[in-house]
Amino acid sequence: MISKLNNAHSLLVSVARLGLGLTVTEYCRENPPRPEMPLELYQYEGCPFCRKVREAMSRLDLAYISRSSAKGAGANRYFVSARAGKTQFPFLVDPNTGAELYESEAIIDYLAETYGGGRSALAKAVAPLSTLNSALAGGLRPRGLSSRLKKPRDAQPEQLLELYNFEASPFCRKVREVLDELELDALIQNVAKGSKRRPELVKRGGQMMVPFLVDPNTGRQLYESDDIVAYLRATYKGG
Ligand SMILES: N[C@@H](CCC(=O)N[C@@H](CS)C(=O)NCC(=O)O)C(=O)O
């Protein structure tokens, strides 16, 4: 019962965002971008500006490393402030081009220009409305805002966790929130509708269903958001 309520609550955010991040753009269905090295996004789930960038990643069928940076988190926040001069999120690092950017709109423009065949004038025109809507949607479910660890995580697990995901999934949101509350980085393998990465997920896990977590540190592979959340909390709550 509690789980169903939690799912419905998480779904509210997807509905408020009109399902953005559910499907891959026409351009990226035809031309799936596969940068040699994964992009790195310093971000956290509860940040409305970060949400817009994550939606763009999903729509453009880009995988990225989420560098978990919720309030109270340690190393990733220090990195951004030392590297670029202010503690502001989202912050994108693209090792393929050397680009390093703050500002959600600048990041979305960059991603669309570099990997998505450009951004429409309409999308640019409605950007301020989208930002306002993202803040309101976040207000419906203020989670993934702060670390829940007693002290900042001093080291990430030896190998990067992998999460098959798409931004608009209410079930994936539950997992992303907990990743940020535990300050865990993860390779986010986006598999929105139309993604050419979907067969890879079926090959690895056996089903086309998200979320799907792969933890190379323990060899565990899990479907089911509640099971993944319980696994992450049990395995990594100690920081
Ligand atoms: N105009 C910026 C605003 C970014 C912003 O204000 N981000 C907030 C988080 S939602 C932030 O970095 N706050 C400082 C913090 O989290 O410590 C953008 O669009 O990226």
UniProtKB/TrEMBL annotation:
<dbReference type="GO" id="GO:0016740">
    <property type="term" value="F:transferase activity"/>
</dbReference>
<dbReference type="InterPro" id="IPR036249">
    <property type="entry name" value="Thioredoxin-like_sf"/>
</dbReference>
<keyword id="KW-0808">Transferase</keyword>
<protein>
    <submittedName>
        <fullName>Glutathione S-transferase</fullName>
    </submittedName>
</protein>
<dbReference type="Pfam" id="PF13417">
    <property type="entry name" value="GST_N_3"/>
</dbReference>
<dbReference type="InterPro" id="IPR004045">
    <property type="entry name" value="Glutathione_S-Trfase_N"/>
</dbReference>
